[in-house]
Design a protein that fits this description.
Number of strands: 9
CATH superfamily: Cyclic phosphodiesterase
Number of domains: 1
Order of helices and strands: EHEEHEEHEHHEEE
Strand content: 25-35%
Radius of gyration: 18 Å
Structural class: alpha+beta
Oligomer: single chain
Distance between the termini: 17 Å
Amino acid sequence: MSKIRAFFALELNNQQILDEIEKYQEKLQKSIGPLKLVNRSLIHITLKFLGNIDIKTAKNLYNFVESEINNPYFYQNDEKIGNLKGVGDFNKRVFFIRIQGVKEFLQEIYEKINQKTKEFPEIKQESKPYSPHLTIARSKRNSRYRSQQNHGNNSGQLPYTQLKSQYKEFEFGKWKIEKVILKKSVLTPTGPIYSNMEF
């Protein structure tokens, strides 16, 4: 049976927020590049990476999320509004925007999905606790060295520590969380291609 690479995510379709993210990405690239920036059409919040799973598993999980997550949490209750405010990084390798206002809510949803995925041995379980964030860039190589080099070559560019401080409390905007989506990921030489799955 053929496998598909899949994950659960929340989409970010607010164009004003995406505009602000692109502005920060541009400054980030100049400050600490070279970075692989996440294209605005691919920006999302990952809830749970599933890896390579078969169609039967994907269908089972899709139906679970529709009935146990989307229906009670999104279709019937009040609106869930997330606030993208502040920036951070994981060892200058992964750069992200912080999520506020709905962290506990997203962690609760993650736990329910994660518990369900334990029924499927093919899905690898994460050892680290889930921390909701919005990834916007990844380093290509030694970013610390490149940051020093870029700052020397590009006069007027902020060092990363100053840029990070400048955006510490910056509010990219608020967005309405619509629902959890099952996404298929196809890896290509030019980057991943995502598509939404429904059954």
